[in-house]
Design brief:
Rossmann fold; single chain; 7-stranded parallel β-sheet; 619 residues; 27 helices; 4 domains; Arc Repressor Mutant, subunit A; alpha/beta
């Protein structure tokens, strides 16, 4: 080959070296091999098909599920001087026809298409014509987990992509995903006929993300307090319902935070405008349902907050993975309560899915609840669900409560190891209360009984005459909420998901009630008086010397101006990491600027003079 992969990596993409298994993947696919690549978000998956497509004769076809992702990737490649285009419903007929001519004429290195468009008879015919001229470099199937019918992003069109292998068996295929547990990995290989493909599985760990789970206790205030530590930074807040999205976005905007809503029920134009503001702006917070996210390539998202429990641990991993794609410190924060669990179990039971599907969804939800309630390192629990054993940063220290010492050093359980308490007596009281009140009431009413409330509802049902009335007055309501939540999580109580969400005993309850089993629960820490959150240095300037900050800000202003002129997100032009390196090294010539990470030949030609002028003006 005239160009080597490393040459292109350095001259076009501006990266000095490959990361992890990138070099091996690129060589394998460029040599004509099929590959299944599992790599975490931000791990450099795109290069694994972009470089082989440029090394091989012809055009690489990238099957991507979302318009926003295509547009971002294509714009980023064009900034680098790569001949790339996309075909999707956002284009008018004239533009689409021009791109097809360029493709047929051999002028494109990469063409992005949606699976629905790829499978049309017209597109399949065009692919035949291109293949006859030897101009099909490869097929890249991005977000390959969409093929799994049990997954959270199932796209039926992905099932039909077997046509690629059946119709053009000599064209290499590479399927890529950042979210796939072992069963999903097997299903991807089977459904896409990639059983003989070489597998490349990287660690799923996102070491730069700090994971935190808190018990719901005035969730809006908790969210606002959390956001005080991320003032002026971009982030995503996920909610389960559209109504809640609107309410939280309005609440945040009313408290001085630049927040916008996003959900499938909004006017399409307003939804697109809010997405554009988030992608193009600095420090915008988007409050969204899971309709927002897949394919969002914004690298400087500093946090992802969940106001409700997601439906599965895979969904949680993918959603939190939208934070910190640039490798800088980021946070995944979740506010979770028993009500979330009750609601999700009701949604599963009341859905029209078959029994097999319902059982699977319950198992997936149980795995996530287990993660939330665990006293172990969150990273260990999370990665174990993807078949990965997480090795500790330092040797775990034994703890009398059953929790480990610091394992990852970057989750709430490692930073502030939780305490356990012998909750056997409290559990017996709770279970007895559930039984004596008829196994049809929710936690709030049961707590009122245990604490001896004299409310109208208590008297109406005669629950003030129960033997359990008032026997739990020694514990506060917050502690009791934690007890009931954990009893459901540990299988000692069940939710009547087909009814009104009342709690009922399980078979496992019997041993506890008979005194044959001890119950250890996580101690609920009662939050002290609210304290003002100290202003935090933005991640973008953390690694800079104070003297370099003014130049960095000047470079960001230059980047923002260029982005506005071209109507593209700022990160498409330069990442913060590149601007930081420029600010620290202060290059005085194009030769010195070419040695900065993220500046290839294309960007040097387009922006080199302007960057050097900005550096010179800063003195």
């Amino acid at each position: 080959m005239e160009n080597t992969a490393l040459d292109l990596l350095r001259t076009v993409f501006g990266h000095p070296d490959f990361r992890g298994e990138q070099a091996e993947i690129v060589t394998h696919v460029a040599d004509g091999g099929d590959a299944l690549v599992l790599m975490p978000t931000g791990g450099g998956k795109s290069l694994c098909y972009q470089l082989p497509a440029m090394l091989r004769d012809g055009c690489g076809i990238v099957i991507s599920p979302l318009i926003a992702l295509m547009q971002d990737q294509v714009e980023g490649l064009r900034q680098l001087g790569v001949h790339a285009a996309f075909l999707n419903s956002s284009l008018d007929a004239e533009t689409a026809a021009r791109i097809e001519r360029e493709w047929l004429g051999g002028e494109l290195d990469l063409l992005y298409v949606a699976p629905e468009r790829l499978l049309t008879s017209r597109m399949l015919g065009l692919l035949d014509r291109v293949h006859q001229h030897g101009r099909l470099a490869l097929f890249a199937i991005d977000e390959a987990h969409c093929v799994s019918q049990w997954g959270h992003d199932f796209r039926p069109e992905y099932r039909q992509l077997t046509v690629l292998h059946e119709r053009w068996p000599d064209v290499p295929r590479i399927a890529l995903t950042a979210t796939a547990d072992p069963p999903t990995q097997r299903e991807i290989a089977e459904r896409l006929q990639l059983d003989d493909a070489r597998r490349f599985v990287s660690s799923f760990d996102r070491a730069n993300i700090r994971y935190t789970v808190v018990q719901k206790d005035n969730a809006r205030r908790q969210l606002f307090d959390f956001l005080q530590g991320h003032a002026g930074e971009a982030g995503i807040v996920y909610c389960l319902s559209r109504r809640k999205v609107e309410e939280i976005a309005e609440f945040l905007a009313g408290h001085g935070i630049d927040a916008v809503p996003y959900h499938a029920g909004m006017d399409a134009r307003l939804r697109a405008e809010n997405q554009r503001r988030f992608l193009h702006g600095e420090g915008v917070v988007v409050v969204a349902t899971i309709a927002f996210g897949m394919g969002i390539d914004k690298p400087d998202v500093r946090f992802v907050a969940h106001m409700d429990l997601p439906k599965s641990i895979e969904g949680y991993y993918q959603e939190t993975g939208r934070a910190g794609r640039d490798g800088e410190p980021a946070e995944a924060w979740m506010c979770y309560g028993l009500g979330d669990l009750v609601l999700l179990r009701q949604m599963i039971e009341q859905s029209e899915s078959g029994e097999e599907r319902k059982r699977l969804e319950h198992r997936k939800l149980d795995a996530l609840v287990g993660y939330c309630e665990s006293m172990r390192c969150r990273r260990q629990v999370l990665l174990s669900n993807f078949g990965e054993e997480y090795l500790p940063v330092e040797a775990p220290q034994s703890s009398p409560c059953g929790a480990s010492g610091s394992i990852c050093g970057n989750c709430d359980n490692c930073l502030q190891p939780p305490e356990a308490w012998d909750a056997t007596e409290a559990t017996q009281k709770a279970l007895s209360c559930v039984y004596r009140s008829g196994q049809r009431f929710g936690a709030a009413h049961l707590i009122d009984i245990l604490r001896g409330s004299d409310s109208e509802k208590i008297r109406q049902f005669g629950h003030d005459r129960l033997s359990t009335h008032g026997i739990g007055a020694d514990l506060d309501a917050k502690t009791w909420r934690g007890v009931f939540r954990q009893l459901v999580a540990h299988g000692l109580l069940d939710v009547d998901a087909e009814g009104y969400g009342g709690l009922r005993l399980t078979a496992a309850s019997r041993a506890v009630l008979k005194g044959e089993q001890t119950v250890m629960l996580r101690k609920i820490v009662v939050k002290r008086e609210r304290t003002r959150v100290a202003a935090r240095t933005p991640a973008a300037v953390l690694a800079l010397a104070p003297a370099d900050v003014p130049l960095f800000e000047a470079l960001r202003e230059m980047r923002a101006r260029l982005a506005r002129e071209q109507n593209v997100p700022a990160y498409v032009i330069f990442h913060d990491r590149t601007l930081r390196e420029i600010a620290a090294r202060r290059p005085a010539s194009e030769g010195e600027l070419a040695g900065i990470g993220g500046i290839g030949t294309g960007k040097l030609e387009r922006y080199g003079g302007l960057v050097l002028d900005t550096v010179a003006a800063a003195g």
